[in-house]
Amino acid sequence: MKIGMVCRFPPEKDGIAATYINLVDELRKQIRVITIGTQGSDADYKLNFRSPLLYFKLKEIIKKEKLDLLHVHHIAPFYSKYFLNLNLVLALKQKIPVITTLHEVHTSTEGIRGKILAYIQKNVVFASNGIIVHTPRQKKFIDTISPGKSICIFYGIDTSLAMKKRKGRNLLFFGILSRSKGLEYLINAMKKLPGYNLRIVAALPPPLTNEYKNELNEKLKGTSIEFIVNDWTGEAERKKHYSWANILIVPYTWAPYQSAVITDAAAYRLPLVVTKVGSVWELPSYFSCGAVIKSKSVSALVVGINKVYMNYGQYLMGINRYAKQASWKISAEMHIKYYMKVINEHKNKKNIAN
Predict the structure, then answer these.
(1) Does the pLDDT value for residue 7 go beyond 90?
(2) What is the model's pTM?
(3) Whole-angstrom Cα distance, residue 73 to residue 295?
(4) Buried b (16+ CB within 10 A) or exposed e, 240-261
């Protein structure tokens, strides 16, 4: 089997790029994978994902490499923003089967933003032969759009990163610095959590600006909270921060995705406190590996953090259950089975049509 993987790859400063190169490495132990990345990616082919010619560029690669299947990774900002991802929707309609991994699943049509993202998502689902999502609830929602087309494959983790149980009251926030991360609530919660230490490690890649960062700096004056901001955080630096922490805090106010920080927590064996927004809370709830709390609530954060600390061993067992089911090896095996299923279904439909 030979597939094409359409995704951002390192050295692109992107969480999906940094994460899904692990899937490629594991898949290559069993099948042939041609990487098709952005112009900033270290990939076999480099394309402009926003180009209106994306369909033709992919068609050329499919023909040249004699691919059996195309696997596309999707979040709306990867593709043509001003044309509502229509260049991608067209590009999905190839002669070979195409599977799309939805890294965001938009279940709400609230506001203009919600309506646009839901419209794009619906078009992508209909144009794909198969859909991969990361949580059971996401699959259930996609089944309302196109029944039976999707599969849930947990976001993979690197099980070699597991650390021994650590003592202390060290709280870590790790992620992109944007207003939807709810850091102002976490900062205020620390006033009611004596004895705890908080480290905020945030990335600020373009096109994000310093506006939110400056607002948080004002809130942090007079506190002992560490605030570390760079344009991107490499793997060695990430390991240092996760190794220091005891609990990972995810205080998001908007998150239609299964965040990579959740899987990083599982990889490093860190219980979580996570708000019930979007999809980030689903796996912590499903595996009982973290406290799921109300969003935009200082008191809920305080209660949740104390709850995890007091029941640390219980949540650690949940983290271990998650880690056992989400290794990259298991993820790759599930992907390959799904590739074969979609390829066979596509062949059968062609035979019937002929």
Answers:
(1) yes
(2) 0.88
(3) 28
(4) ebbeebbbbbbbbbbbbbbbbb
